[in-house]
Protein 1
Amino acid sequence: MRKIKEKIVLTRTQEAYLLSKINTIHFKKNDFFITPGETCTQIGYINTGLLRVFNVDSYGNEITNWLITDGELATEILSFLNQEPTQEYIQCIENTTMEYFTYQDLQEIYKIVPEMHECMKLINEELLISIKKYILSNIHLSAEERYEQLLKVRPKLFQKAPLKHIASFLGMTDSTLSRVRRKLLVT
């Protein structure tokens, strides 16, 4: 609820209504939030935990597309917005607790709390900006610069995520990540 209240002003009645619609789910380490072919019906924020969004390439290699941790938005946005099957996996890297709305509940919420349209617009804009920055950094920044940027912007990932997933997320091999880390420790 805190994330919503940071974006829009709610009356007490609206806040009580939204609280009645919030669901909580607990995942164990290695559980899947979603797998290819399923349609995502949940959008929410991670209370505690870590999720990894990934695909498997034609050679069977897992490619980490995104990492989601405490206080961050968790959904498969294309599947959720279009209510169509996903092509991605989202797996829990550690025990994870999430508060969320279902797609159906959100459609009802829009009718009762029209301000939620603005809230979702702002959430989607933040997500779009993060994804665009990630894409541009993979194009324009060196391995060292990508590592330093991620360390600066999302330091919690380095406390929680296995380095192999961070390396994949940064578009580098495990050995390249090791070299980058060693180089930065020396300088």
Note: The chain has a mean pLDDT of 94.
Protein 2
Amino acid sequence: MAHTVRTITLAAVFSLACHGAFAAQSNDDFVEDASAKGVAEVEAGKLAQEKGTAADVKSFAEMMVTDHTAANEKLKSIAASKKLEVSSNQQLMDKAKAMILELRSAKSFDQAYANNQVKAHEATIALFEDEAANGKDADLKAFATETLPKLKAHLTKAKALAEAHGGDAAKQ
């Protein structure tokens, strides 16, 4: 009987420890993905301010740099308080390179940037909605919930921008 109780107790402790490990991994994944997407937005926005030709594209890009820099700083602060690490600059830049290279090689930079912003914001919104609904850490969940309205506003503006510049991402 004592052996059975000990086995059940060990199983329960192991189960709780595994759950905590999975929750921590989930928090790490969210912080890494959200920070990578945020840095990609900032870098693409800087590139759009430099390479874009239309005033509305440059204005949107400026808003992306400002808003995503602020969100990145807030996420970085939350992550530090949780002893979670955001990706290193090199890791973040590696993730952002594909998006930036796609923009550099496009026939119409403004159109490519607008299309990319629709796709990028749809992916980011899905990530943040999942964290807001299913996140295990209260602070990260609150951050995701608080950031979602701004991301959705960005998506609405990105769709209008894509439509104005002949992009096809807004129609999907």
Note: The helical segments are 2-51, 55-81, 89-105, 109-134, 138-164.
